[in-house]
Write a structure and sequence with these properties.
The chain is an all-beta fold. Helices cover 0% and strands 62% of the residues.
Length: 68
Amino acid sequence: MFIDRSGDYTFKLCSDDGSRLKINELAVIDNWGLHGMRCMDETRFWSAGWHDLYLEHFENEGGAMISF
């Protein structure tokens, strides 16, 4: 992902079951486990420029949902 300006940015991740967000190999949101739809968010400072973004999700059974 590319960030135009350095500053605080909030990322929100919702999923049924587990999900994880890493940026530049740094764990930002860990919403892992067996659960219904659950949202987590995190605000952090990010410098301007390119950053590696990694989003992971798994579904055990039942409803499948992820929102980033």
